[in-house]
Amino acid sequence: MLQLYETRVSSRLLLGTARYPSPAVLAEAVRASRTEIVTVSLRRESGAERSGQAFWSLVRDLGVRVLPNTAGCHSVKEAVTTAHMAREVFGTPWIKLEVIGEDDTLQPDVFGLTEAARILAAEGFEVFPYTTEDLVVAERLLAAGCRVLMPWGAPIGSGRGLNNVFGLRTLRAHFPGVPLIIDAGVGVPSHAAQALELGCDAVLINTAVAQAGNPVAMAAAFAQAVEAGRAAWEAGAIEPRDFAAPSTPVIGTAFRR
Q1: What is the pLDDT of residues 2-40, one digit of tens each?
Q2: Using CA atoms, how far apart are residues 138 and 151, in angstroms rounded to an integer?
Q3: pLDDT-derived band of residue 183, with 50, 70 and 90 as boundaries?
Q4: Residue 63's CB: how many other CB atoms inside 10 A?
Q5: Could you confirm whether 77 is annotated as catalytic?
Q6: Tens digits of residue pLDDT in 72-94
Q7: Catalytic residue among 96, 118, 140, 230, which?
Q8: End-to-end distance of the chain based on CA atoms, in angstroms?
C-alpha cells in the first residue's frame, strides 16, 4: 500500500485526464490502468461559472480520487488562487502544485514553488509539488509542509524517460520515508518500471497514455510495468559490475592441466 498524507491506495500509477481522443476513451483507459487517483486541471472560469460539469461528473463516476492541479500557472499568486478554486470545486485539500518557470522545458520555478507550497500548507492544503530532483529544493519543500515530492523524469510530454537517474537515486537515499512520485517525461512502460526499480513510490502518466495509438492498451501496459518495477525493488536487485561474474559455479568442475 502507498500512503499519501492520510490516504492509502493500492495502485502506484496516477493518471492524467488531458488530451484523450474522447471521454469514452478516457474512461476506458482509467479502468484499464487500475489507478485510484487521477489529476485534473482547473481553469479559472470553472471556479466562477461551474463550466465543465459533464467532465467532472465523468471523473467522479469512475470512482477514483481526484488530484486537482495548478497546471499552466507561472506565479505564486496564480497558483495559490487556482488551488483555492480547486478546493472549492472538488472539495478536497489535495493539490498538485505547479509553478512553471521556463516555457520551453516547462521546468518548475523552484523558488515560487516553495513559496506557494508554504502558503498552501499553512492553509491546510495537502500539497503534491511538481519539482526537480534537487536535494536542496526537496529540503525546502518538506520544511514548507509538503509530505510528498513529485520530481520530474524529463520535461512534460517529452517521453524521454528518466534523464537523471543518479539524481533520483540520491533523492531516494536522502529521503527514504518520503513518497516520491515521478511526474513528467515518462514515455513508455519500461520508463515507469525503471522508476519503481529505483525505489520511487509511483509514477504519474498523461501524454504517454492519452496520445498513444491505443490509449486503453497503453494504460494496461503501464499498470503491469508499475507492478513489475515495484516487485523488483522489493526483491532487491543485484548491483551492476564492471566485470563478468560466472553464473555457474567453477568449484568442483572438470578442468585441464
Answers
A1: 999 999 999 999 999 999 999 999 999 999 999 999 999
A2: 9
A3: very high
A4: 9
A5: no
A6: 999 999 999 999 999 998 889 99
A7: 96
A8: 57
